Target: Type I-E CRISPR-associated protein Cas7/Cse4/CasC
Amino acid sequence: MAATPRFIDIHIVQPVPYANLNRDDTNSVKTVLYGDALRTRVSSQSWKRAVREHFQNTLGHRTLRTRRIGERVTETLQSRGWDGELAERAGAHVAAGSSIKWEVAKGPDKQPIKNKVLTNALVYLPEDAVEALADIAEAHKDALTTDFTGKVKKQESVLPKKQIDEILRAKNGIINLFGRMLAEVDEAGVDGAVQVAHAFTTHTTEVELDYFAAVDDVTEAKNDETGSGHMGTAEFSASTFYRFATVDLKELAKNLGDDSALDPEAARELIGQFLLSFIESLPQAKKNSTAPHTLPHLVHVAVRSDRPLSFAAAFEEPVRSAAQGGFVGRSVVGIDAYAKAANTLLGPDRVLHAAHASLEFDKLQHLGERCSSFEALVSAAVAAALAEAPQ
Model:
C-alpha cells in the first residue's frame, strides 16, 4: 500500500545582514543558548505574523485580532449611515453580547468611557465577520436603548448571544492554517495546521551596540551650542538563520471541514501560498534603519508520511566560518549531510517527495531535485502532497 502524505516540511537557510528583526521588552536582540553557544533568535510569533501579513496581502484572506471589536462594529454602522451615538451604543452591545467576559474601557483619568467596551480576551476572526456582527445590531436596532457606562456592576447586552458566538466561530484560510485560541466561546478554538519553529543562527553570534546621535537642525544652523539633540544606543547582529516550519495535512483537512481528505482546490491555494509566504516574508522591526531584505540562499521542501523532521540538530554544534569568511556555504552543506543521516536512520521510504531551490549550490545530493524557482519548488511539493500531477 502506498504511503499517505501527512506533513510538508520546509527548511530555509537565510543570511540577514546587520539588523534586529525581533526585539525583547528592553529593545535588545533576542538570543538563545544552544549547544553552549549564543545565537541570535527570531521568535516564531514574530515570523508567523510576517507570514500572515504576506499571506493576507497576496491572497486576501484577512483576519482581525482585537479586544476592540465593538469599535470596529461602530465604525461599520457609521459607514452605513447610523448616528454616531447610537452606533457607539450598538458596538458596546456587540462587544458585551458574546460569551467572552468584558469591561468598560477607562480613559487617562481612570474614569469609564461610555459605550466603549473591551473584551477581556483577544477576538480573532475573519475581517468580513465584522459586517455580520453589524447586521445583528441592525436587526435589533429598536432594542438598543441602554448605554454601557461602567457605573453598573452587571449589565447585559440586548443582542442574541448565540448569534454573536456563532459569528465568532467563523474561520477563513488564515485561521484554518494558523489556528485560534478562544476558550470562552464553545467550539471556537481551532488547532493550527502549521507549526513554526523559532529561527536561530547556525553559528555563534555577538550582539553589537550601535551608538547614534541626532542633530538639532536649528542648533546646527545657529552654531550657538555644542552637542547633539539626542543620543542613544541600539542593539543589532548579523546572522545566517536556520528556519523550519511544517504543515499538518490531516489537521488542515479537519479545519477545512473534512476529517478524511483534503479539498484539493482549497488545499492547493492555502498550502501553496503559506509556503511562498514563509519563504518570502521577513519581520519588519527596524526595517527603516537596516533594510535587511534578503532572500533565502537555500529552501528545501519534503513531503513526509510519518512525522515532521526539523534539521535544527544539524547546528547544535555551531558552524565555523569558511577560511575566506561566511557561514552560508557550510550551513547548506550541514543541511545536506544531516538530511542524508536522518533519512537513512528513519528509513528513506518515509520521504515521499523532496526538492530544493538555491542561489548557487549545484552539488547537493540529499535534498532532492533542484528546482529553478521558489514557485516551481512549491508547486511540485503541493502536487506531491495532494497526490496529483503538476498542473
